[in-house]
Amino acid sequence: MANEEGKNERIAELGAAKNEAGDIFCLSIIGEIEGHGVLDSTRKTTKYEHLLPLLFSLEEDEATKGILILLNTLGGDVEAGLALAEVIASMKTPSVSLVLGGGHSIGVPLAVAARRSFIVPSATMTVHPVRTGGLILAVPQSFDYLERMQNRIVRFVVEHSGVKETAFRQMMTATDTLANDIGTLLEGEDAVKCGLIDEVGGLKEAIAALYSFIREE
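and the corresponding structure tokens:
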């Protein structure tokens, strides 16, 4: 009974659960990635300070053989999202990501951080340059910081997916796709064609791939 209550509490608080066998952990990253600042209480958020220790515990848990990451995010804090992506990519525990609904902005590195990535046909992903909210100083140092941050993201995405750097940078700066911004909106099949995501598929395909990795391990 206590275990059941703990499982329900984990689902409610973190959007996370284990399968019946206890060897696959399902983790959802939804809404906005909350970083150093606290977002409005009316927004649906994923808090990186919750996920970082959770990912550590999963990596050290011998019972956990694989991690399924369900993504439906608008993006959010760039440094927090990139930190989570780096942790996922550096884990020895096999991981598979599935983009549902949207994997926008910093959600792109999170999607490609897994060992294998999937996207449903109806999902979309927005690729655009790094933006920052609030007041910034219009000095060379500020622009240099943003450019270096953008280069970190580009480098991570290119290293963990099949997309070419030139093509990815072109998508980031396209002016003919988004009405009020620069960048590119990719639907499921488009994301696979350009090499950003590995396969078009749903939950069944993602779970099958994860079990395949577990058998190999």
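(Above: one complete record from the training split.) The beta strands are 16-18, 24-34, 45-47, 66-76, 95-103, 116-119, 124-127, 184-187, 199-200.
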